[in-house]
Amino acid sequence: MSRSQINTNPNAETYRIQGLSCTNCAAKFESNVKQLPGVENAQVNFGASKVYVEGNTTIQDLEKAGSFENLKITNERERKSEKKISFWKQKDNIRLYIAAFIILISLIASYSLNEQSMIPTIGFGAAILIGGYSLFIKGLKNLIQFQFDMNTLMTIAVIGAALIGEWLEGAAVVILFAISEALERFSMDKARHSIQSLMDIAPNEALIRRGNIEQTVDVNDIQINDIMIVKPGQKIAMDGTVIKGSSSVNQSAITGESIPVARMTDDEVFAGTFNVDGLLEIRVTKKVEDNTISKIIHLVEEAQAERAPSQAFVDKFAKYYTPVIMLVALMVAIVPSAITGDWSTWVYQGLAILVVGCPCALVISTPVAIVTAIGNAAKNGVLIKGGVYLEETGSLQTIAFDKTGTLTEGVPHVTNIVSYQGEEDYNLSLIAAIENGSQHPLAAAIIRKADENNIIFKNVEMENFKSITGKGVQATLDNKDYYVGSPDFFKDLHTSIDSTIQKQIEDLQLEGKTVIILGTNQDILSLYAIADKVREASKNVVTKLNKLGMNTVMLTGDNHNTASAIGNQVGVTNVKSNLLPEDKLKYIKELSTNHQKTAMVGDGINDSPALAASTVGIAMGGAGTDTALETADIVLMSDDLNKLPYTMNLSKKTLRIIKENIIFSLGIKLAALLLVIPGWLTLWLAIFADIGATLIVTLNSLRLLRVKDDA
């Protein structure tokens, strides 16, 4: 059963896990939970540090299942985010500090006392037991069950060091391995915090008016259609629609837009956004678990559980890597010793190989980078729904844009009016009256223009209104028939169109404008050129993508002239016009068959088939749009195309950092292993190589928190 199936099962529960630091621990915890009485199925999301449980169990039983790591469990419904604890104050590090102090005292004693004194040895032994207690418990259990992981390697190495009398180095291995684990735990917690901090964006309560009574209500008790009152300087607690008042609202927490937007009656607002300067009354439209910020957190946490291709490779590699390292260590310890008789030296070298072969850095190299990048993207208004899409975005070759609502604003405007007979205002009132009530976007543009010019048209009485499908409309005024439609419609009405008028129509069409004509069955009264405004960011974004060597394509249902004009304006390398939705899908599939990795950028509604067929589907303006959140692989939460270059930059940097991590973690192991040949590898050097690799890989991954949206 998949995780999505578990999540939709009414007999399922989701819990947050505190203290989950490694993928091996996650796998073991999942296995333990599945064996609990009453549990039918369970899945652990390591990236989000959550467990999905189907069946009946308790938090106490779950904590028993995670007792090997002292895991703490809380119900996801508790709106409680974890406190950010500094590295030095983490409880799990207390035994580490005690053991380190004992080692320091024992070192001083070894220099102060004679060589026969057992005090330093006892001290080092005590440090091994205190610092390595949990390590030995896990390692010995694994050894008995023939499970070979990093705990098993370290346990064998430390016990071996003690048996050959290298107590100091055995203690050092314990301490430095504990530091390495603490770094892993700290880095994963820091990466997860970027998402968990989103939980604090929306307030836990809101001022609600029910009837004539105003009261502060916990968000879990707020119902749909409740009236929420938000004063200036307060955060909005729930998704809703403004029913009274106007204000500027900072939506950066949701969309990544730093500039506040105007919100007034009938406008939508989101939980977690900030009311800047006006008093708003808002009708609640969604419960707390269904609001936009909750959906973002849920989808991002789900994304963190999806394994990227590089992570799948690392997991598969590590599965075989550890047993191979153990075999190599055994061969180094036995074969040269049997030949030379020098067992002490070569057993020591074998133990050093076990330590240097610990795959800590390799195992953490990918998940910490993926979790960090996805969290950073969410905080910048970009929802990436899995590591696979994050990686694929960095290797795209073609980006196909839907025109309307993506490269353009999606709202047509009247740009030109050319009158031949009658007054311009009178003709505008006629065409507005005829188009009034029509749902067509071009009709809406005419109505807006009439309103802008303060033209009175709603009291103009029309008779015999008739829509001629695909061509235009007609209506009668004062016993005279008027027609509104395309130039082709008027060619059918007239034997010919005057050459001067025809030239003006063609010139406007070459500018990428749609021409609507008002006339009678004998005369053309006026032309109205209508165009969808190109977004301010479109040309800049397309130029950036072209410079990166991307093939940029515009897909549209517009005619060739209109499409070419807009394509030239924004600078795309290719234009495909006169396309139906199925034609867009066909084109995307053709690119895929030619082995081109393609992204489709659309609104997530009309372009759903093409979004699904592309390598990466990218939806625009997903804030509050359920369709976009569900259909696309990546969602730009605002209508800001500038988020696209940011996303590609983040993806490329993530890919580069993952490759650097893998190459470095394997390279440093190989370099250390080569030191076995001249006999230079020591336990000290081995553990420093391991902890050094873990530290560098961790810090390298956390650099992704610094990737900014420079738009």
From TrEMBL:
Catalytic activity line of the entry: Cd(2+)(in) + ATP + H2O = Cd(2+)(out) + ADP + phosphate + H(+)
Transmembrane parts of this sequence: 94-112, 118-136, 320-339, 351-375, 662-681
Localization: Cell membrane
Record keywords: ATP-binding, Cadmium, Cell membrane, Ion transport, Membrane, Metal-binding, Nucleotide-binding, Phosphoprotein, Translocase, Transmembrane, Transmembrane helix, Transport
Membrane topology: Multi-pass membrane protein
Signal peptide: none
Domain of life, source organism: Bacteria
InterPro entries found in the cross-reference section: ATPase_P-typ_cyto_dom_N, ATPase_P-typ_P_site, ATPase_P-typ_TM_dom_sf, ATPase_P-typ_transduc_dom_A_sf, ATPase_P-type_domA, Cation_Transport_ATPase_IB, HAD-like_sf, HAD_sf
Ranges where the HMA domain occurs: 11-74
EC category name: translocase
Keyword Cell membrane among record annotations: yes
Entry's EC annotation: 7.2.2.21
Protein family per UniProt: Belongs to the cation transport ATPase (P-type) (TC 3.A.3) family. Type IB subfamily.
PANTHER family in UniProt: CADMIUM/ZINC-TRANSPORTING ATPASE HMA2-RELATED, CADMIUM_ZINC-TRANSPORTING ATPASE HMA4-RELATED
Protein name: Cd(2+)-exporting ATPase
Species of the source: Oceanobacillus kimchii
